[in-house]
Write the structure tokens for this entry.
Amino acid sequence: MDKLITIYHGSKQIVEVPTFGAGRKNNDFGLGFYCTESLELAKEWAVSSLQNGFANRYTLDTEYLNILNLNTPEYTILNWMAVLVEHRLFSIKTPVARRAKQYLIEHFGINVNAYDLITGYRADDSYFDYAEAFLNNAITLEQLSMAMQLGRFGEQIVIKSKFAFSKIRFEGFEAAEKDRYYVLRKARDNEANKAYLDILDEDSDGLYIQDIIRGSVSNDDPRIPRNLSE
């Protein structure tokens, strides 16, 4: 990552001064300011079916920041899952899912609040459903990994610490039209859903979350995809 980067925040409003400690704690990686290096993705995230939005543009000086990049080979898809289940609100439908949530946090969890900045994939729309299906023992780890690579997966940059917030500089904004960008967002989601159904039609002898718990599978197990981009 270059020391000085340009990032975008998709929102219903113009945000000239991002506020440390604001926002929803039940986002993917907890409280933080959620951005992307992609202007087009920021515009998709900014709009709803009824409302236009804005892609706010910033420069961020990453020098001296403690950065967690979940997309490097050091981490696995289960590290991402552990962070997700600790912060997002999942539908826990089975006793297996309750045990799975605890197991993932205990064996694969990462203290995201120890970092200034986090880079990782966003559990957007369908992708959250795939993660929830895995947690409830409905799909295998291999099917989850395949599903998470469907469509044009969005990578997000999350500003976590007060120090990192001091490094943000507002540079302007661009309008995001719902008539264009909501259509693009839904098309990506529909494409991923169709491909996901094809995956479910295939036989899978892979690991279910119950197998992972029973086998005390750890992060260095070669059967676990090292990161979501692989």
